[in-house]
Amino acid sequence: MREMKKPAFIIVLIALAVASCVSQFTPDIVSQSRFLTVNGLITDENRQYTIKLGLSKPLDETSEEEPVRGALVSVSDDLGNSYIFREKNPGIYVSDSTLFTGIPGLTYTLGIRYNGFYYTSAPYLLRKSPPIDSVGYEVIDREINASGETEKAVRIMLNTLDPSNDTHFYRWTYDETWEIHLPFNNIEYEKRICWMHEESHNILLANTEALTEDRITDLTVTTFNNSTDRGQFKYSILLKQYATSREEYEFWNGVKTMTENSGGLYDVTPISVKGNVICTDDPEEIVLGFFSVSGVTDTRIFIRSPLSVPDIYRERCVEEVIYADPRLPGLGSVIFILNIYDNDESPDVWELTSNLACLDCARFASNVKPDYWDEGFGK
Q1: Euclidean distance between the first and final Cα of the chain, in Å?
Q2: pLDDT tens readout for residues 304-358
Q3: How far apart are CA 237 and CA 296, in angstroms?
Q4: Distance separating alpha carbons of residues 110 and 159, to the nearest angstrom
Q5: Which residues fall within 8 angstroms of residue 41, CB to CB, at 6 or more apart?
Q6: Judging by DSSP bridges, how do beta strands 36-42 and 287-293 pair with one another?
Q7: Looking at residue 5, what DSSP letter applies?
Q8: Distance separating alpha carbons of residues 312 and 3, to the nearest angstrom
Q9: CA dist., res. 36 & res. 57, Å (int)
């Protein structure tokens, strides 16, 4: 039997957390080994908001961040209203969406009481985000090496404009969803079709303050080639645009610079990047992260089969090809038939695997069709 292949499609996301280090960054901070981290976002979307609190790991440790339990968390506005965030999971504090939705034009402040100390953010105006003018895509020939070789790739780009010339500082995030097909005839149809979902990991920003017009033109959101199955069948991307403050823009731009120089977004603690939360009882205490207040608009596009993609699942799943042999040890318990090729004048040919994920795509993706799928692509 051929050497079995690892289920690469299951662990591909691990690669997102691995980045090559240019140089090691070690901040000159010795008086405080653990830092309160605050990450939260208030928008004008009618949804539940989340504030995440943690204690950062010491710089010489590789342990995960410790969640902060038992804090009292609230958000207040400049009209005197205060909204409690209740602890849903360790370190995760959520609002009641029936009681609180951010309103453009109001100013919001975060308050945290933890371990006998009080922490607060600066107050921030919730700016209304202008609509995204357009989102499109193109198939490009992208150069892949110094000898001039190219590959086909899909580039997603956007245009946006604020006619009032009032936004200037923008941030974007996106969610990708794409349909996958396992190409095997010996598994049930319902187990062959699934949907993959991935949120953006890169920091996407723009600043128009120095321009005569508050306009963003042809900004690249993301690109992908045929090494992924995003472009094989049906692909959709939901793009969100945030109207941020200057302070938030500078924070994320600092984090972006740091991660580009030091590693991946989730591999570093942005100690050198000034946040907007302070401890009122001890102003010298370092607090990490940022409490964001941003208006948001969004748009979704649908793309059908933009690239010719190799049969990646057959390459990853098929471990052996044999003539049909019902006496094969372990058949149906540790070895499974993926595909059957009928031969009229000789025994059938089987493609085999020991990887259960290759028998049911729900083991690594979702088998629930998104509710917007048929409307976007048509049935």
Answers
A1: 42
A2: 999 999 889 999 999 999 999 999 999 999 999 999 999 877 889 999 999 999 9
A3: 16
A4: 32
A5: 49, 50, 292, 293, 294
A6: parallel
A7: P
A8: 17
A9: 10
